[in-house]
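Hi all, long-time lurker, first post. I run a small reading group and we've been trying to get comfortable going from sequence to structure in the token notation. Rather than ask abstract questions, I figured I'd post a concrete chain and ask someone more experienced to write out its structure so we can walk through it together at our next meeting. Sequence below, copied exactly:
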Amino acid sequence: MIGTTNIKAISFDCYGTLIDWDSGTYDFFRKILPLEDKERILNIIKRWEAIQFQLIQKQYMPYNKIQEISLIKTLHKFNLFPGNNLGKKFLEQVPKWKPFTDVYPILSKLKNSYKLILVSNGPLSILKKNTKKMGIKFDKIISAESIRAYKPNTDVFRYLLRQLNYPLSEILHVATGYKYDVIPAKALGIKTIWVNRKQILYPGTVSPDYEIINLTKLPMVMSYL
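-- Answer (accepted) --
Happy to help. Here is the structure in token form:
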């Protein structure tokens, strides 16, 4: 570990931060839409993620229902009708998705010095399978289903703070999701590191404490907190 830090606990988002969400979702859509080209599939995924984001901010419903409704709505907008039980089929694929190559080397070292917490909108049963793929034993896994609210609802992060019972100065949240994670965490005064894997410009006005393009620089950046 480089330098020193006041941080005692690090929470991580799962999909896009630790698990390769983009590759997984693209493979899923490619399988259910074999006649569509790459550009059209990417446009469909973009629309689907927007619809999904709208749904999770409404009255709580289980994650499988969110996926089923968002997939059907999206595909119908493109005049596509690939069959039934799409939400179920999608969730069956998620445990198979691979972690990024930087996850195990970095988190396995951090595990020796910090409490590691996984905070995700995904179901607990699937998150447990994802962590096995990572090879990391988290001190706690927090699923939105336990709170009956999805990120970016600040209730998720309030729940995290209650579970940790540490001062804000000793907690760090690490995530790729800018609007899902950075904005609500910063609203509560939680230190954040934005993992900007796609190297895009800030999609908003809220600034994370630090920005990195992958996890390899995380230990060094933490020494500045």
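A couple of things your group might point at:
Residues 49 and 70 are 8 Å apart (CA to CA).
The chain has two domains: 9-20+98-222, 21-95.
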